[in-house]
């Protein structure tokens, strides 16, 4: 007897189920989104000590690009989005990288330069330059910067260049200046710029100064980091402030020279109201530049400041210190020299108390306050439940320190590198 149509349908359905169960899933059965999610677990978290940020590196994905075309199309953009060059092999790796980006038209796979989003190049200090006795190899040349601007400009948003120390200051007779203008003109997505040890050419800004052209032509930056950079014209600082404007959230100007002054800090304060992170200092040979005018502008315009580190602020007085209590989002306040001036610019106890009561998000407080930190000040710190680190220099000798900090949940820690007589450090118990 023949089977009914209903029974035949059931047999066909059972056979299809068996085939679907028995057939193994292939690599092509996974969607690109799922593959990208799986590949993300192979990433390495790298902490950038230069800029105090964590980057995601996809270096382990290199073998995956050789599996098949579909995996290559997913892994290559992740693998190439961050490029870091430093150490002995930096020059060779940099040349290979630039050759691959320049010859992308002849490649059978991708235009690798279009994947790059962040580049970090650090000059080497491992080989002696016999001409000036410095341990220097200059990877960062005008040709390299020009190649980056031509072949890695589509998505480049984060650029870090650490020049070698000992490089002579450029002048108007030197050939091959860094083509900052070409970089600013082509890298329209650049939002983070970090330069270290850069000696700016001694050229008048009116005759086409390279870095000044960059400040004029670039898109608004969200982060600007300049460490140990020399001879940057004051006009360039002011132009950078006006160009960045409301986009700038992080400003780091460390070990600056005499070209950076109060006028430039005030310009940043007025032009960049959304500034969240401010870290400024000068070299030892330059007189401190932070005064009351600069701090008053910062507290009046940059109300969302969370991090303030002014390593050379011993020219400010209680007049400007009173206004710090306006910064309700302040988390870190580092003024290691403020109040130590011979002119007697000291803080009043009421100003310290107002700061502690208003800035309840404080996590780190580092200041000089001789004679002002009485028991009332420590009681006010109870309004700061997030306080993790407290550093105070020249405390009142008669203060019952241990008892007060036992209430705050902070433990005393003696700084082994401290040479100051009454410097005490506390940190949250763990």
Structural class: alpha/beta
- The tally of domains stands at 3
Number of helices: 14
**Residue fraction in strands:** 15-25%
Helix residue percentage: 25-40%
The CATH class of the largest domain is identified as Alpha Beta
Largest sheet: 13 strands, mixed
Protein name: F-box domain-containing protein
InterPro entries: Leu-rich_rpt_Cys-con_subtyp, LRR_dom_sf
Region (Disordered): 1-24
Organism: Lunasporangiospora selenospora
In short:
By secondary structure, this protein is of the alpha/beta class. The chain has helices at 5-22, 32-39, 69-80, 90-102, 142-151, 180-186, 210-217, 234-244, 262-271, 292-301, 318-321, 349-358, 375-380, 401-408, and strands at 44-48, 53-57, 82-85, 118-122, 124-129, 134-137, 158-162, 192-196, 223-227, 250-256, 277-282, 307-310, 332-335, 364-368, 389-393, 410-413, 424-428. The chain has three domains: 31-80, no CATH class; 82-286, Leucine-rich repeat, LRR (right-handed beta-alpha superhelix) (Alpha-Beta Horseshoe), CATH 3.80.10; 304-430.
State the main characteristics.
Leu-rich_rpt_Cys-con_subtyp, 430 residues, Leucine-rich repeat, LRR (right-handed beta-alpha superhelix), LRR_dom_sf, globular, 13-stranded mixed sheet, two-stranded antiparallel sheet, F-box domain-containing protein, 3 domains, alpha/beta
